[in-house]
Design a protein that fits this description.
Elements lengths: L10 H5 L7 E5 L5 E6 L3 H9 L8
Antiparallel strand pairs: 1-2
Length: about 60
């Protein structure tokens, strides 16, 4: 569940997220919100995980 906190600013406007389409929220195991992204930014999501995950071994 994600909702705007208008006292802290509108996260949808700040991140360029379409309110009708929604967003993707990356949450760490400790419940920290690591990233909030629009649903169509595949390259940005891949770049985020490239920085924190090891490559798969063949």
């Amino acid at each position: 569940m994600f909702y705007p906190d208008f006292q802290a600013g509108d996260i949808f406007d700040e991140r360029g997220i379409d309110r009708e389409r929604g967003c993707l929220v990356v949450v760490r195991p400790d419940q920290y919100v690591a990233h909030v992204l629009p649903l169509d930014v595949h390259a940005e999501l891949a770049a985020f995980f490239k920085g924190v995950l090891l490559p798969a071994s063949a």
